[in-house]
Amino acid sequence: MSDENSTSLADRLNHLFATVGPDSGQEYSNEYVAAAIRKAGVPISQSYIWQLRKRRKENPTLRHLQALADFFGVPAAYFFDNGVARRVEDQLTALRAEQDRLAQNGGRDVRLMAMRAGELSPARRKQVMELIDVVYKLEQAERRSASGD
Fold first, then answer.
1. What angle do CA 63, 65, 67 make, to 5 degrees?
2. Is the model's pTM score more than 0.70?
3. Quick count: other Cβ atoms within 10 Å of Cβ 46?
């Protein structure tokens, strides 16, 4: 973070809170993140996370940085290496775009089907896949005929 063009720890941490969240679309609370990190064995409080996010604390321990990185699924270098931060942010942007695309295309229905299929035996999952393949091919043929191809 010594580079004048670099983003602060608080900015990067707040970016993670804004872009990596539960399926509800809400961001994680400081308390939720602190509780998850404590459950993983690293003592941390929600007020400490708040202080990091508000620039009241700017020199966290490596252990806390690693725990925050682990929670959000990013490398710890994200917090201090501009190149890593750019790559992670590009990946997060692509992930968010894919999540938005899925949500617009019946994402909840797709997740529900996948969850239910996951509870089936391998033989029944194979049958479901075969059925989906048939329905998919029919729909593709319908789309081609509707577009005049």
1. 70
2. no
3. 16
